[in-house]
Design goal:
29% of the residues lie in helices and 35% in strands. The chain is α+β, with helices and mostly antiparallel strands. The protein has a domain of 117 residues: Gcn5-related N-acetyltransferase (GNAT) (Aminopeptidase, 3-Layer(aba) Sandwich). Strand 2 and strand 3 form a beta hairpin. Helix 1 packs across helix 3. The longest helix has 16 residues. The chain is globular, with a radius of gyration of 16 Å. The two termini are 23 Å apart.
Length: 171
């Protein structure tokens, strides 16, 4: 199957994911690496789950839950977003619950996402924006073939001012 291997499975969002998404999306420590400015309500997240059936061509994003095959535990989320059909590119991102970081889940999930994006969706390139201080994330994407192609100065607001963002691409 295209969206799973022996270790992880990427699956669609389900109504049962609401409380987990609520916890992750409302964690202020994660807001700096995304573009969240305020908490999400359960109502808004429920609407997101209900709208997740739309194709990437309709919504310009695809969000998948990362499940450990052996236990069925949901360990994180992986996304394709800002999809642009004409140049055929998309941003990608990943969030792993802190308890499951450092165990190879992110690498496996991103490999599956990349395989799906390139072989099934026929995407030409994927890119990521990573805060320059996030060395683990930069190493993860480099390990998967992403190459650093630039720096966006003062690109994101952080607690102590602004941070540059490293742009990495996989073509």
């Amino acid at each position: 199957m295209l969206l799973s291997n022996d270790r992880v499975r990427l699956r669609a969002l389900e109504p049962e994911d609401l409380e987990l998404l609520y916890r992750w999306e409302n964690d202020p420590e994660l807001w700096e690496v995304g573009d969240t400015l305020a908490p999400y309500s359960r109502y808004i997240l429920k609407e997101c789950i209900e709208g997740s059936h739309l194709s990437i061509y309709e919504s310009h994003q695809l969000r998948l839950m990362i499940e450990e095959c052996a236990t069925g535990i949901t360990v994180g989320i992986v996304d394709l977003f800002d999809f642009e059909p004409r140049p055929n590119r998309a941003a990608c991102g990943i969030m792993l619950d802190r308890r499951y970081q450092g165990h190879g889940f992110a690498t496996e999930a991103l490999r599956l996402l990349m395989e799906y994006a390139y072989s099934f969706l026929k995407i030409h390139q994927l890119y990521v924006h990573i805060p320059v201080a996030n060395e683990p994330s930069k190493r993860l994407f480099a390990r998967l073939g992403f190459v650093e192609t630039g720096t966006l100065k003062d690109w994101i607001k952080i607690a102590k001012g602004y941070s540059d963002v490293c742009v990495m691409q996989s073509i």
